[in-house]
Amino acid sequence: MKDWFDKELHDAAARALDYFTGKKLRLATAESCTGGLVAAALTEIAGSSHVFDRGYITYSNTAKQQELGVPADTIGRFGAVSEETARAMAEGALRNSKADYTLSITGIAGPDGGSADKPVGLVHIAAARNDKTLHEELRLGNLRRGEVRRRSALAAFALLEKLAKS
């Protein structure tokens, strides 16, 4: 197993793939602070092409707007790291892909870049399907950058499972 791809992340990705394969559903991701970690975890597992449609890595605000259709006003009013932006990312990925479900992650992985209002370790995740979008805010603290990314990916898989079962 690769260093970044620990058993916990493997198992979370495998559960998602098993569920979506069984239901013949497609999944897409829209990632910022995780830089494609969720997509990488999914595609590390053989057979993921039956489920995984595509992944957007929209690290910059411009990419969020161009690739996912996140309104500039949303980013201007609420910031790139916000519930509103996470929801817009997930819903934009749904509109712009062949997926039935999408996941989005935006946050501050650190070690720099935080503020009093938006500290390092603040992450917003969203999971969307055509009739519903769920959101979760994480406050992970100033952990190692890789740990913020890993925990964010795990939380995204958990939110996806919650949405799929609702």
Describe the model.
The protein is 43% helix and 20% strand. The chain is an alpha/beta fold. It has one domain (15-164): CinA-like (Maf protein, Alpha-Beta Complex). Helix 1 packs parallel to helix 6 (145-164). The longest helix has 20 residues, at 145-164. The radius of gyration is 15 Å and the shape is globular. It starts with 6 loop residues before the first helix and ends with a helix.
Ordered list of secondary-structure elements with their pairings:
Layout: H1 7-23, E1 27-31, H2 37-43, E2 52-57, H3 61-68, H4 72-78, H5 83-95, E3 101-107, E4 122-129, E5 132-139, H6 145-164
Parallel strand pairs: 1-2, 1-3
Antiparallel strand pairs: 3-4, 4-5
Helix pairs in contact: 1-6
Morphology call? globular
Give the neighbour order of strands across the main sheet. Answer: 2-1-3-4-5
Sheet with the most strands? Answer: 5 strands, mixed
Determine the N-to-C terminus distance: 32 Å
Oligomer description:
single chain
CATH superfamily: CinA-like
Beta strand %: 15-25%
Task: Kindly list the characteristics that best describe this protein.
single chain, five-stranded mixed β-sheet, 6 helices, Maf protein
Question: TL;DR?
Answer:
The chain has 166 residues and is an alpha/beta fold. The protein contains six helices and five strands.
